[in-house]
Specification:
Elements: H1 10-21, E1 29-32, H2 42-57, E2 61-66, H3 76-88, E3 98-99, H4 104-116, E4 120-123, H5 127-132, H6 151-162, E5 172-175, E6 190-194, E7 208-210, H7 212-222, E8 227-231, H8 238-248, E9 254-258, H9 270-278, H10 293-299, H11 303-313, H12 324-338, E10 340-342, E11 344-345, E12 348-353, E13 362-367, E14 377-382, E15 385-389, E16 409-412, E17 417-425, E18 432-439, E19 457-458, E20 460-462, E21 467-474, E22 501-509, E23 521-524, E24 528-532, E25 541-548, H13 552-559
Parallel strand pairs: 1-2, 2-3, 8-9, 10-23, 12-18, 16-19, 21-25
Antiparallel strand pairs: 4-5, 5-6, 6-7, 11-22, 12-15, 13-14, 15-20, 16-17, 17-18, 21-22, 23-24, 24-25
The structure holds one RNA strand.
Amino acid sequence: MSSSSESSNFIRDIIVADIESGKHEGRVQTRFPPEPNGYLHVGHAKSITLNFGLASEFGGKCNLRFDDTNPEKEETEYVDSIIEDVRWLGGDFGVKPLYASDYFQQIYDWAVELIRKGKAYVCDLSAEEVRATRGTPTEPGIESPYRNRSVEENLDLFERMRNGEFPDGARTLRAKIDMASPNFNMRDPVMYRILHAEHHRTGNKWCIYPMYDWAHGQCDSIEKITHSICTLEFEDHRPLYDWFVEQLGIFHPQQIEFDRLSLTYTLMSKRKLLTLVQQGLVESWDDPRMPTISGMRRRGYSAEGLRNFARNLGVSKTNGITELSRLEYYIREDLNRTATRVMGVLKPLKVVLTNYPEGQVEWMEAVNNPEDPSAGTRQVPFSRELYIEQDDFREVPPKGYYRLSPGKEVRLRYGYLVTCTDVVKDPATGEVTEIHCTIDPATKGGTTPDGRKVKSTIHWVSAAHAVTATVRLYDTLFTVENPGQAPEGGVFTDNLNPKSLEVITDAKLEPALANAKPLDRFQFERLGYFCVDKTSAADKLVFNRTVGLRDTWAKVEKKG
RNA sequence: UCCCCGAUCGUCUAAAGGUAAGACAGCGGCCUUUGGAGCCGUGAAUCGUGGUUCGAAUCCAUGUCGGGGAGCCA
């Protein structure tokens, strides 16, 4: 929809140039390679949108490939959630996802090949010894005493590693590159470690597992990936990525790095998100306050809105931080087009229409979506006793306030024009408990046959017909723009917003909402967008506020 | 300290040696049966210093600042 207005980016430029030059016969193949060690978050949405978007734009394919080379951190639960999230975002990866673990045998065979070529060796140094001999930024590392073992010995040892003859950590397979390289990644990096751990897919078939650097490029090569797009922190790994495919003489994908997404007030570290879940600081990975795809979906964010956000972010190599308001803009933009309008009162104030007949009910026609005439209309019951929003009445209106107050007239949307005649207060507290109004019978439907202008139109719900619901109002999970950064002497969870969730249990909604189903999205007029929670049931409705409407009055009032 | 990468409105991105543009956010207005949406308008930037060039955001040098890098994590 908004794709036509986008400009190019440096990655697309590279692809265009490659197609023009005939590289890979003009073929474009990308991949999205998550590690199944957590749930996907909005940062991944950017990568998904980019990789699948590029593939589709140039008539290519994008694989979903699990980077499952570390059995100690990876689980099937994560695999399942990732598949669901990628599909929901519209990522078309064909009939099934791929797994690095599917290629373990090929990767092993290639390791043997490198040993035969004298490019890899079995090293008996412990992890501590490897660290101690790696050198520093200014000093070269020290070559391992096992570096010059014979090919035969390396072959034998490596096979025995695979056969489980050695305990965890006893030996590694290392690439023989350059211990003096200024790039640490080239100082004889570990290719395989011994891990007697059960893998979520290969079970106990393997007790040695390839490291990221040794697996990733080879997987890309196997899948004939043309453009392997990853984030900036892998820039230093590119020389190693290239070295492995060159030594093997296999298909050579091009690694291209771009900036990962950072969002204000949002945590993007899987490890820290895991902490929130494990410590019970949020309900779950899909808590609507979480920046996870599943959390955002549950909150009511639409896939289209998320995609538009991601598409319009741009792609570069600068590490910046995007304002949360930008995400909210694209969510609102999409929901404005698509969400059915309804009326709901969050904090009810009883209104009695003193000149409206008791027992009378009129069904008023209401527009379902002014942005989409095909959405049609519905009937909303109107009666003598209504609820309006507490915020829509002020006994003493501040400057610029043009909702209801004593003696003032407002329009009840799709109802009547009403004038406030009386205020009933609790004698003990002085709190307004009820207000009385009179309707102008000539204004049925909210029309003004005399052409009279009213400053304000407010929403309402017929008290007798209202359904009661729980509504959860969310604010940012954190109070600071960069929540990953712990305050002085504290931990990052100190940044949590104690008011990130407000639960309203007696919201009054128009009766049509009684049939709302989980994940249904609505605009509660004048309030915001709301999504039916997955725990909602007909006898216990639960709505999550996705995002509020822009509220200019709140801004005016705040400024005083 | 060494290596790699980066630096354009408040924020995110454009401008491929030739008028610094758009979006979000802000501000002002119009319109409105949502103080929503929409529409119109407006303020706002090339990190510093040298150099090359008729001409530099763009090329070169240098400085500064920011990010990443010494896992048997990815």
